[in-house]
Design a protein that fits this description.
3-stranded parallel β-sheet; 6 helices; 12% strand; Rossmann fold; alpha/beta; 38% helix; 3 strands; globular
Length: 143
């Protein structure tokens, strides 16, 4: 069954994966690599839900991508956390970039780290970290 767009506030049991770059979110809009409005809106809405324990993101840098994405993501995470006082929200972000990218990968990672967002340099590392933060073994979770 094809995935349907996430409707913030809609009760969905278990874990949910949302690809903000999917056609359901990008028809008539720029991809979130370029314009993060949809992605940051989802972070704010989903992250504000106290039933959500962890948000896993990826951030792709390079030519044609958003010129400075980390501050917007950090602000969205801060808003989500402020909307759920006393209920922690873990956020893990894999950052795909290099020192040659115009966004300065080291600065992007520093901004995310300063916002209390766990960063990794690969999606696989981010998935393992997320599983660990949720108290699950990645091997056991993959079954």
């Amino acid at each position: 069954m094809p995935a349907r767009p996430l409707v913030p506030g809609q009760a969905i049991p278990g874990n949910v994966i949302v690809d903000a770059g999917d056609d359901a979110y990008t028809v008539g809009r720029p991809h979130p690599m370029v314009d993060q409005a949809v992605r940051c809106g989802l972070i704010r809405a989903v992250g504000a839900d106290p039933a959500v324990g962890l948000v896993l993101l990826d951030l792709v840098l390079g030519d044609g991508a958003h010129p400075d994405p980390a501050p917007e993501i950090a602000a969205a995470v801060a808003d989500a956390r402020a909307a759920r006082p006393g209920v922690p929200l873990a956020v893990v972000c894999s950052v795909c970039g290099s020192s040659g990218d115009p966004q300065d990968v080291a600065r992007q990672i520093a901004v995310l780290d300063a916002a209390g967002i766990h960063t990794t340099v690969t999606a696989a590392q981010a998935a393992r970290l997320a599983a660990g933060l949720l108290g699950r073994s990645p091997e056991r979770s993959a079954r």
